[in-house]
Amino acid sequence: MERLGLLKETxxxxxxxxxxxxxxxxxxxxxxDHDIIAIKGICVIDCSWAxxxxxxxxxxxxxxxxxxFMLAINPVNFxxxxxxxxxxxxxACLYLGDLRKKLVYYGxx
Length: 109
Hints:
It is built from three helices and four strands, in the order ββαββαα. The chain has helices spanning about 35-40, 85-95, 100-105, and strands spanning about 20, 25-30, 40-45, 65.
């Protein structure tokens, strides 16, 4: 998606104001997050969520969200629960935040 100019890679910082998708998010991403997503964006960290805790990120002031039960459709983990790729997680967050028009534009779904 970055190569297509649909998102940009950035260094993670404590000043990030958007939604950070994590396996330990205290809330599930939902329509309540629409404005935050639309204005400030979504951040996914390109790593296995099984290794997320090894990153030791300071998430004190970050809006973290998790995803509800979902099955992966990527070829590596097809049909496995909670084994989504970053693109799948990003797309799911847009969908749950009621930003379906962005999905059509990005061609994610």
